């Protein structure tokens, strides 16, 4: 597009900036469109539909994510990023270990019950290789953080000193996830309440962290 004069140069600069901004926001628009489509399509969508909804070409969608599996993986990454920020890695304003971790369980259950993709990710998508890889990476990060958390619980006397912190963190994280996934597999009207599920998970954690002699 030809431009001339100072005014036109500014217009060209603004146009170029707009093009850069457009490129930066295209992946976000694709992820947002895919998120909505996964909700409506029960875990599936067509790339052409996502591209059209996001206002980009199908070629650009493949350029950013490589494949439909790549776009699904990006959506799942966003889900777990939110879970980590709001729950798993969040610094809760409670100093007592027992009170803090009980509150964290309540936050986790509330997050999964209220997030529109939680049931789809933990049920239908969990067998997808790209999703499995993401979940494994996230679990490893959570276990690493959980080890420090268990050590803190041992210092406060809330977690048995007999327990291996890594084993305790792995068991409690896996157990919590399994109970949440089982609840989400039920129709909404048949699921336990948030409070009931939180108590069930908390009882599991307390049994696991007290040790055999407690």
From TrEMBL:
Lineage: Bacteria, Pseudomonadati, Pseudomonadota, Gammaproteobacteria, Oceanospirillales
Full protein name: Putative transcriptional regulator
Region span, Disordered: 1-24
Keyword list, A-Z: DNA-binding, Transcription, Transcription regulation
A Pfam family reported for this protein in Swiss-Prot or TrEMBL: TetR_N
InterPro entries per the UniProt record, alphabetical: Homeodomain-like_sf, HTH-type_TetR-like_transc_reg, HTH_TetR, Tet_transcr_reg_TetR-rel_C_sf
DNA-binding region: 46-65
Keyword Transcription attributed: yes
Alphabetized GO MF terms: DNA-binding transcription factor activity; transcription cis-regulatory region binding
Record keyword Transcription regulation present: yes
HTH tetR-type domain segment(s): 23-83
Source superkingdom: Bacteria
């Amino acid at each position: 597009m030809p431009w001339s004069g100072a005014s036109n140069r500014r217009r060209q600069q603004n146009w170029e900036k707009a093009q850069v901004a457009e490129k930066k926001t295209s992946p976000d628009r694709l992820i947002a469109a895919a998120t909505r489509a996964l909700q409506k399509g029960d875990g599936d969508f067509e790339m052409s539909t996502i591209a059209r909804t996001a206002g980009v070409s199908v070629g650009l969608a493949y350029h950013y994510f490589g494949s439909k599996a790549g776009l699904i993986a990006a959506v799942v990454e966003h889900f777990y990023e939110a879970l980590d920020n709001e729950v798993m890695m969040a610094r809760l304003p409670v100093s007592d270990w027992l009170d803090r971790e009980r509150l964290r369980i309540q936050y986790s259950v509330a997050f999964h019950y209220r997030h529109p993709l939680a049931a789809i990710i933990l049920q239908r998508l969990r067998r997808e290789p790209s999703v499995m890889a993401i979940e494994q990476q996230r679990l490893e990060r959570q276990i690493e953080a959980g080890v420090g958390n268990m050590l803190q619980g041992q210092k406060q006397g809330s977690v048995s000193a007999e327990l291996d912190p890594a084993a305790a963190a792995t068991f409690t994280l896996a157990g919590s996830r399994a109970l949440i996934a089982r609840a989400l597999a039920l129709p909404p009207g048949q699921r336990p309440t948030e409070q009931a599920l939180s108590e069930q998970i908390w009882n599991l954690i307390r049994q696991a962290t007290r040790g055999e002699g407690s």
